[in-house]
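May I ask for a protein sequence together with how it folds?
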Amino acid sequence: MTISKSSLNSIPTCYATVSIGTPTTPLDQKLAAIAGAGFQGIELGFPDLLSYASQTYKKDVDAQDFDTLCEAGRKVGAMCEEAGLKIVMLQPFANFEGWPEGSDGREDAFRRAKGWIQIMRAVGTDMLQVGSTDSPHALSSTSHLASDLRQLCDLLSPHNFRLAYENWCWATHAPNWADVWSIVQQVDRPNIGLCLDTFQTGGGEWADPTTSSGLIELPGSNPRQTLEERFRASLKELGKTIPAEKIYILQISDAYKPREPLDAEVDEQGLRPRGRWSSCLRPVPFDGGYLPVVEVAKAVLETGFRGWFSMEVFDGGPEGKDQEWKDMGAYAKKAMRAHERLLEEAADA
């Protein structure tokens, strides 16, 4: 499929609230910076809603105090409407699928799901992002994973809500786009689709933060060529396999190559190396990263998708340190320039 420049003009722009400032930065300031840079929508990060609720009601609001969070959510919805921002989705809903029947984890997952649906109604969004589980306790059966997600779709359906399923590249059982696409097909519900991500695909299938090269190191006489061929084949398959209507959103970020290879072992918080990499070494494109962001975006556009492009970055600089965030507005504008350049480079000449 030809990717014409004119076809990209209508792509709507989005920015994740967790990708600017800190969890304690006042939410109205984040929204002002995002809107001021020209973005049309936000991904509302649950940590930001929790922080806003705690600041507003001057108490530590529990993550499962859904009555208070819904009350705060209605205020957030009004703030976004005033700022001219659509709440595209609520994120990130983690470690939902795969818990054994009768387990405390499964009971908690469905309790959280019902609470988050209440929040979605309060803030005025119709889409829930679910990341592929990274719990070590998750069952490996894809039929079990699909069954759980099917039940979640059925909880969302009466409200005309959708589920955007994302492959997290450090996930236990579904780290790649092909894994989550297979599961989505098994779920077989009209209100489930994909949340694709340039970092999750490039960082999972091409790069590796635990090697000195920063790349997946394959055996053989010409490992780099083999890697490139394998990655190109995966992107070609993505572009010709997934129907455009089954892609709900594309998240955009790059990644810094770690100064030193990350430890390949799971850390004390139970996080795998790609998860640690994701948390603080993800800048906007064209700003010091090294992932094939343009190539991933082109593959997604090859499907015919022209929906939301959303900046979801976690930028601690090349060292992965916390930012001081002295000028959120300037950073958001840099992100918008990166979005515009990405579309230019993804378009066919």
User: Anything to note?
Assistant: The longest strand covers residues 86-93. Residues 104-123 form the longest helix (20 residues).
